[in-house]
Amino acid sequence: MIETPPLVDQCCHGVLRTELGLGTFEAHLGRGEGPPAPGTTFFDTQTGFAVRRWCPPLLGLEPHCQPARYLARRRELGVIEAGRRLLRATGIGTYLVDTGLPGDLTGPPELAAAGAAEAHEIVRLELLAEQVADTSGTVETFLANLAECVHGAAAGAVAFASVGGAHGLALAPQPPDAGEVRGAADRWLAGRRVGDRLTHPVLLRHLVWIAVASGLPLQLHAGTGDPQRYVGEFARATAGLGTDLVLLHGYPYHRQAAHLAGVFPHVYADLGPAVVRSGARAATLLAEILELAPFGKLLFSSGAHGLPELHVVGAQLFREALGRVLGGWVAEGAWSRADADRVAGLIASGNARRVYGLS
Question: What's residue 283's pLDDT?
Answer without folding.
Answer: 93
